[in-house]
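Weekly modeling sync, notes
Attendees: S.R. (lead), two postdocs, one rotation student

Agenda item 3: backlog of single-chain predictions. S.R. asked that every request posted to the team notebook include the full sequence so nobody has to chase files. The rotation student volunteered to paste the first one in as an example of the format we agreed on. Action items at the bottom.

Example entry:
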Amino acid sequence: MAVRRVCLLIMAFFSLGLAACASTFEASYDSDPQQDFSGYQTWAWISENPMIIGSTGDRPPNPLLQPRIMQKLEAGLAAKGYTRIDDPEAADFAVSFTVGSREEIRVDSYPSTYAGYGMGGYPAWGGAYYGYGMGVSTNTQVRQTTKGMLALDVFDVAGRRPVFHAVATKTISDSDREKMDETIQAAVDAVLGAFPPPPAGAE
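Predicted structure, as returned to the notebook:
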């Protein structure tokens, strides 16, 4: 019984660890090493509808995403000290973002314990023995999942060129859909995590 309890605790520990990892957006960044971001003070949306629809497979995009993402990006950039203005031609940099999703087949394998009882006799002793054995087998689960993506693009207005790009991805769970505002906030925090990038050569 004690052995079984220990195995269950180990499995619960790994399950919690996997859940914690799955709850985080994975982000990647790229920027123009020649661009000086230190002079940026004002920004604007690149257009009235700055959301670009990326790959969505058979699932149409949610039209309510654009205003919610815009609101959280505005708050995030304001927290970094940037002021939003309406005219993109008068701003230091312009911003657009892309949303997308794709369906994936996910195969998960995890250990499961099994117990076996045996009864037999030792002929030389003329008696019986009870044996208890525990082993580890593997369960495999195949399921379809949705990978969600938010990308941020920053354009230098004076040079009229892209200078920063960030992408955040995550496997979207039912809990993420139920708490969509929190999910969007986590994605926005991820894409803004490395903006502005440090000067070239800085550690």
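Discussion: group reviewed the output briefly. Residues 36 and 199 are 7 Å apart (CA to CA).
Action items: rotation student to repeat for the remaining queue; S.R. to check formatting next week.
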